[in-house]
TrEMBL record:
<protein>
    <submittedName>
        <fullName>H-NS histone family protein</fullName>
    </submittedName>
</protein>
<feature type="domain" description="DNA-binding protein H-NS-like C-terminal">
    <location>
        <begin position="106"/>
        <end position="149"/>
    </location>
</feature>
<dbReference type="Pfam" id="PF00816">
    <property type="entry name" value="Histone_HNS"/>
</dbReference>
<dbReference type="InterPro" id="IPR037150">
    <property type="entry name" value="H-NS_C_dom_sf"/>
</dbReference>
<dbReference type="InterPro" id="IPR027444">
    <property type="entry name" value="H-NS_C_dom"/>
</dbReference>
Amino acid sequence: MTKKTLAQIQSQIDKLQKEAEAIRSREVADVVGRIKEAIAHYGLTAADLGLDGRVARAPAKKSGAKAARADAAATPKVRRRAAEAVATKAAKAAKTDKTAKAANAAKASRPSVIKYADDQGHTWTGVGKRPNWFLAAIAAGKTAEDLRVQAPTA
């Protein structure tokens, strides 16, 4: 068995890349033909397809052997896994966004109840860090019960 030289292997790679590009071109032409046929059959418009003129264009392809090797390395399995990862990430982001909005809506709908107040108009709900006025009143000899707001009786 003879060993191949780097030049021979590179030549094979170039030949296979040209063959792959030719196959891709034929497949693209077939797909475009089927799409055009379906558009004509169903009478679809650009708006129906979500093509309102703000369609993101695919980035320009890099040329050269290095770019071709990178494309060849991206097997269908690798591409599928990458697409699944993107979809999963998007789904998690949407779920997190919905959860955050629901939590914020619940917080916004609950009014804060004032539990502590002093005679100077300072108030505190009893949640979070104790405010300075509360700490100063405690240091001055008052108790938390002294500052507690009495619930109105009906």
